[in-house]
Amino acid sequence: MEVNHVELVMSAVDPAQYPTTGYPEIALVGRSNVGKSSLTNVLINRRSYARTSSQPGKTQTLNFYNVEDQLYFVDVPGYGYAKVSKSEREKWGQMIETYLTQRDQLKGVVSLVDARHAPTEDDIQMYKYLAYFNLPTLIVATKSDKIARGKWNQAVSQIKKAMDLPNTDNIIMFSAPKKIGKDAVWNWIEQQAFGGN
Ligand SMILES: Nc1nc2c(ncn2[C@@H]2O[C@H](COP(=O)(O)OP(=O)(O)OP(=O)(O)O)[C@@H](O)[C@H]2O)c(=O)[nH]1
User: Fold this and answer.
1) What is the CATH number of the domain that holds 58?
2) Nearest-atom index, ligand 1, CA of 175
3) What biological-process GO terms show up in the record (predicted)?
4) pLDDT tens-digit map of 41-65
5) Residue 153: domain span
6) pLDDT digit string (tens) for 139-186?
7) Alpha carbon of 197 to ligand 1 centroid (Å)
8) pTM for the full predicted model
């Protein structure tokens, strides 16, 4: 999909604040600092629409981005941010659980992991959670430019094993600076959003 127009429509904490236009939605989830903003920027051909931050975990709302009046990207605040209080974590859990389990427009989830390391417990838990609710999920391994090409297969196998996946079809190696994986991610998103389900 060629994207020229994106705007932040809504920052929502609860369902009353979700957009009502009815476009399909693709959620982006991942640990703080995994590269979510960078991935989004590559997908929408911009250098700096979505802030890339060095202060992890700031975003605590669901942010809906209108992409060409066709779909929404829903930026789900990063998990595994140790510095927030227990009550904030509970609030966060409640907010994303409500969204992920009750939103009809949600057609797929892009789950980001860091290609350089084995998926964390948080990554695995998130994946199992999405699988439990039958949410179609694409695993995007970010920062793959930071490991040698010769190690990519190993990284993919490690993710497959940790997430207990039947195959590697839904794992994409991605690099924001090199724009590697962009088309594959878009293909999956378009398939989920518009692919006739
Ligand atoms: N080399 C490399 N660096 C990346 C890549 N993706 C992200 N980064 C860097 O990783 C850091 C975090 O990236 P962000 O895109 O801000 O991560 P985020 O997940 O949006 O972070 P939060 O806003 O804290 O949730 C930044 O310094 C990015 O430049 C990538 O594919 N390759």
Assistant:
1) 3.40.50.300
2) 31
3) division septum assembly
4) 999 887 655 554 444 445 578 999 9
5) 6-194
6) 999 999 999 999 999 999 999 999 999 999 999 999 999 999 999 999
7) 32
8) 0.92
Structural domain count of the chain: 1
Find the largest Cα–Cα distance for the chain: 48
Q: Is residue 126 part of a domain?
A: yes
Is residue 78 assigned to a domain?
Answer: yes
What is the best residue among 8, 28, 33, 54 to mutate for testing ligand 1's pocket, by most ligand atoms within 8 Å of CB?
Answer: 33
CB 42 within 8 A of CB 112: no
Compute the Cα dihedral for 147, 176, 134, 96 and give only its sign: positive
Domain-embedded: residue 1: no
What was the ipTM of the complex prediction?
Answer: 0.97
CA of 79 to the centre of ligand 1 (A): 14
Residue nearest to atom 8 of ligand 1 (CA): 35
Minimal-distance CA residue to ligand 1 atom 5:
143
